[in-house]
Specification:
Elements: E1 2-3, H1 12-25, H2 33-46, E2 50-54, H3 57-67, E3 73-76, H4 82-90, E4 94-97, E5 120-124, H5 135-145, E6 148-152, E7 160-161, E8 164-165, E9 172-176, E10 189-193, H6 196-205, E11 210-212, E12 215-216, H7 227-238, H8 240-258, E13 263-264, E14 279-281, H9 285-297, E15 300-301, H10 323-331, E16 332-334, H11 343-358
Parallel strand pairs: 1-15, 3-4, 3-5, 5-6, 6-9
Antiparallel strand pairs: 2-10, 7-8, 9-10, 11-12, 13-14, 14-16
Helix pairs in contact: 1-7, 2-7, 3-4, 3-6, 8-11, 9-11
The structure holds pyridoxal-5'-phosphate.
Length: 364
């Protein structure tokens, strides 16, 4: 079976070396040594000021909204994982969808202004598939209307824009370290900011608001990462360059063999690429479904990230429609990309796709 992705596992010995430290200390969670080590190494590696590890990428978003005291409406992208919107709704915030750009798949800054209201408190764009948003244009709108900017950077591990970490833009960036992501801690995530006050408040919020032995200074939540998760992160960080190299090879192989037949995401200029995903755009949903059928028949399982468009999910009760996002959602497919996808397996995927795209479709 070839899945869309496979969780990276370090060698048992590497993991064991970190886990031994947990058994030696007897300290399992609550800002332990390994979480502190991981935060420091990640902040250095990603070149960011404050990086606070949390239990997952969804809680990272929710804590970010609380720390920034958001109220009312938040402009966000309909082309994302459900958590981008559901985290807002859980915090009693109303997602307002601004449509995406059909080439970058990111929130289109020109679509923001028409949706602003006196109740708008923030913009929540997504660096989709690790492609940096138009951060300057978004910040300009935010400044003009006194809005906060939170980037859902779940896909943007180790992406640089204009020579610096893409995580440095906006008031806060959040990232996911879920097993399916490029870098993971089994479950986990982080909140990134360069604001000292905000970082302090976030540390308070993720630990029940507890500020002293018998002192509670904020209505907090439990969003802590534990030591075993941090151990996994540290072990994977030891291998991260190897992981990047392998994914880059796979991604370029797809691009080399499928360009012209399928459309690729248009990347922001002056940015680096982490190859976390291998999205391709078909001419029609019919063509996509035919290709998926043929791949599935060979036990290959790509995924339709992101389908359906979030503005069409009934329980999210969207207030507006985003035709571009709906169209892209129907035609996009993420191809398998992971560290131990072999060249033979990848060539099989490419050949099935090429064949599917040159023969008339059987799916109507
Ligand atoms: C994975 C993901 C999340 C959620 O992260 P979890 O760690 O799984 O909670 C949020 N937003 C986007 C865009 C994601 O891909």
């Amino acid at each position: 079976m070839i899945p869309v992705t496979k969780a990276y596992l370090p060698s048992k010995q590497t993991y064991q070396n970190y886990v031994d430290q947990i058994f030696d200390s007897g300290w399992l969670t609550n800002n332990g040594q390994l979480v502190q080590q991981l935060e420091k190494r990640l902040a250095d590696y990603l070149d960011v000021k404050h990086l606070i590890c949390v239990a997952n990428g969804t809680l990272a978003l929710q804590v970010a909204f609380k720390a920034l005291k958001l109220k009312g409406e938040v402009i966000t992208s309909p082309f994302s994982f459900p958590a981008t919107s559901s985290s807002l709704i859980w915090e009693d915030l109303q997602p307002i969808y601004a449509d995406i750009d059909p080439h970058s798949f990111n929130l289109n800054p020109n679509e923001i202004a028409p949706h602003l209201s006196p109740n708008t408190s923030a913009i929540l764009p997504v660096h989709v598939f690790g492609n940096p948003c138009q951060v300057a244009a978004i910040q300009e709108i935010a400044n003009k209307h006194n809005l906060k900017v939170i980037y859902d950077a779940a896909h943007a591990f180790n992406v640089k824009l204009d020579g610096q970490s893409v995580l440095n833009f906006g008031d806060i960036s959040t990232i996911s370290f879920h097993s399916t992501k490029l870098f993971h801690t089994i479950e986990g995530g982080a909140i990134i900011t360069d604001n000292d006050q905000l970082a302090k408040q976030i540390r308070l919020l993720i630990n029940f608001g507890i500020s002293g032995l018998y002192q509670v200074d904020a209505v907090g939540i439990n969003a802590k990462m534990n030591e075993f998760e941090a151990a996994m992160g540290l072990a994977i960080l030891d291998d991260i360059d190897k992981i990047h190299t392998k994914r880059t090879q796979i991604w370029h192989n797809y691009q080399q063999h499928l360009t012209g037949r399928l459309q690729f995401q248009t990347r922001q200029s002056n940015s680096t690429q982490n190859h976390a995903y291998a999205p391709v755009l078909f001419e029609s949903e019919t063509q996509l479904l035919a290709a998926v059928d043929k791949l599935n028949a060979n036990n290959i399982h790509p995924r339709r990230y992101f389908y359906p468009s979030l503005d069409t999910i009934e329980c999210f009760e969207a207030l507006n429609n985003c035709p571009v996002s709906q169209d892209i959602s129907k035609r996009i497919l993420c191809l398998p990309i992971y560290h131990d996808l072999s060249e033979t397996e990848q060539m099989q995927i490419i050949e099935i796709l090429q064949h599917s795209l040159t023969t008339p479709s059987e799916v109507e």
